[in-house]
Specification:
Layout (H helix, E strand, L loop, with lengths): L10 E5 L6 H17 L6 E6 L5 H14 L3 E5 L5 H10 L4 E5 L8 E7 L8 H9 L13 H6 L3 E4 L2 H11 L3 H5 L3 E5 L8 H6 L5 E5 L21 H9 L4 E5 L6 E4 L5 E2 L1 H15 L6 E4 L5 H9 L3 E4 L3 H11 L3 E3 L5 E3 L8 H15 L3 H12 L4 E8 L4 H11 L3 E2 L2 E7 L4 E5 L4 E6 L5 E8 L5 H11 L4
Parallel strand pairs: 2-3, 2-4, 3-6, 7-8, 7-9, 12-13, 12-14
Antiparallel strand pairs: 1-5, 4-5, 9-10, 10-11, 14-15, 16-21, 17-18, 18-19, 19-20, 20-21
């Protein structure tokens, strides 16, 4: 029986050698080629890139063979390349889209097949469903040329995507003040595509960049997976203390996400990071424009929107919702709870490199440490906000579990009154203090996530535990 390929948040992910095979990657590539041709994009170019996971370059070559056989000019990255750099290459090459061989923050057993539109952004849910429907059921319907032939006749061309991206970044941010600031910047590349980027961008000045986990190792030692959340970031936080660094920047496996640690080696959670980045653009750079946020991220953005007179628009979880909305609104910033942030003037794609540079620029412009910047943010939004989440595997029928959550109708969570239930994407119980608890099923793994944000730091764990009970886990 043919393996049924299902697209999730950004595309398809699977277990290497079990369902993620060369033939299944080729089937995906044929589905994407069919989709582009149906969209009237036949004969145009497509960018193909990959990360540092097991055999990524070979899976990328397999996708390139299929796209070239379908009449597309393929621009294949000459090595592991960050997702935001691949996305910018789509715009730079005026391509019809991109294929990115990456499983991002998934466990080391996995790899993935991401697709991007002509803007370099995520394809919307309807487009993803269409691509999925066009994936052939067997290899008989997959067109393919030999890689060597494609390279010889010019249908496949390897290129360095970093050159155009760096020139573009220099138009968005002046790097010289950061180079001259004399900071000590710790970088945890999480064995991924972000390795070498901050040293390269910030060399030649007083600022010192120290990297860890900056070689290729698809088993991702010292972490469960290359995702910039605890406990995966603990080694980087300790290295920040050991090296007396001013800040820690953490990129996930494909460098589209970012995490931060303060000068004391304390993790700055993703919601606080999003609040800081929005505050930086609005207050320090004086920019204005809509803010796009998923329902799983911080209400501090709503408060900043009111203070600075900008619209805040909420979407479902995932950049397949955020990216199209950013394009529609010409938004200032878009982001989600996972640590992915996109910016005006750049492609509508999470960019963990640019986000890291903006964070450093915020420190340099204000002359403040991360802990001081957080205090400034909290002063603006009326006090400290606290966040955490629990990820737990689940078994059994998902629809039955969803019905159980709907039927629960809790009056309080962690002692706080429930004021509203929002079911835009998952189940978000809004609380009397303006906070929330969200139960949501992963689009890429058999995992259920329970998240919360509240202004009561002593109630976070109680809210999460009550959330697990609502979901039938406890």
């Amino acid at each position: 029986m043919t393996y049924k390929i299902k697209f999730g948040t950004d595309g398809w992910r699977g277990v290497i050698a079990e369902d993620y095979t060369f033939d299944n990657v080729r089937r995906c590539a044929q589905g994407f080629a069919n989709y582009l041709s149906e969209q009237g994009q036949g004969g145009r170019s497509v960018v193909v890139g990959h990360d540092k996971r097991f055999s990524g370059e070979h899976f990328a070559a397999a996708a390139a063979e299929v796209l070239a056989a379908n009449g597309f000019k393929v621009w294949l990255t000459d090595g592991p390349t960050p997702t935001p750099v691949i996305s910018y290459a789509v715009v730079d090459k005026k391509a019809a889209g991109a294929v990115n061989i990456t499983a991002s923050h998934n466990p080391p057993t996995d790899n993935g097949f991401k697709v991007r539109d002509p803007n370099g952004g995520a394809i919307d849910p309807d487009g993803l469903k269409k691509i999925e429907s066009l994936i052939p059921n067997s290899m008989e319907s997959v067109k393919r040329i030999a890689y060597s032939a494609g390279e010889t006749d010019g249908r496949i061309t390897k290129f360095d995507a970093s050159i155009a991206y760096i020139e573009h970044i220099k138009k968005l941010i002046d790097l010289q003040p950061i180079k001259d600031a004399g900071l000590t910047v710790m970088v945890d590349a999480m064995w991924g595509n972000g390795a070498g980027w901050f040293p390269r961008l910030l060399e030649g000045g007083k600022t010192r960049v120290i990297e860890i986990h900056n070689t290729r190792n698809p088993s991702f030692p010292e972490m469960q997976r290359p995702e910039p959340i605890r406990p995966n970031v603990d080694a980087g936080l300790q290295a920040t203390v050991d090296n007396h660094a001013d800040v820690l920047l953490i990129n996930d496996g494909d460098a589209d996400r970012v995490g931060f640690g303060d000068e004391n080696g304390k993790f700055i959670d993703q919601l606080r990071a999003y609040g800081l980045l929005a505050y930086y653009l609005l207050e320090i750079r004086g920019q204005r424009g809509p803010i796009v946020k998923t329902l799983s991220t911080t209400t501090m953005l709503n408060k900043l929107g009111k203070l600075y007179g900008v619209e805040v628009v909420e979407t479902g979880v995932g950049f397949k919702y955020v990216a199209p909305k950013m394009v529609e609104l010409d938004a200032l910033i878009g982001g989600e709870e996972s640590g992915g942030y996109a910016f005006h003037g750049n492609v509508p794609e999470r960019d963990g490199i640019l986000a890291g540079l903006y964070f450093l620029d915020m420190m340099v412009r204000t002359g403040k440490k991360p802990t001081q910047l957080l205090q400034d943010l909290f002063a603006k939004v009326g006090g400290e906000h606290f966040y955490d989440r629990i990820d737990t595997p689940f078994t059994g029928d998902r629809a039955a579990r969803e019905q159980k959550i709907l039927n629960a109708k809790p009056q309080t969570l962690g002692g706080l009154k429930v004021t509203e239930l929002v079911t835009v994407d998952g189940f978000q119980f809004r609380l009397e203090d303006g906070g929330w608890m969200l139960i949501r099923f992963s689009g890429t793994e058999p995992i259920m996530r329970v998240y919360c944000e509240t202004t009561h730091g002593d109630k976070v764990q109680a809210i999460l535990q009550d959330g697990l009970k609502v979901a039938g886990i406890k």
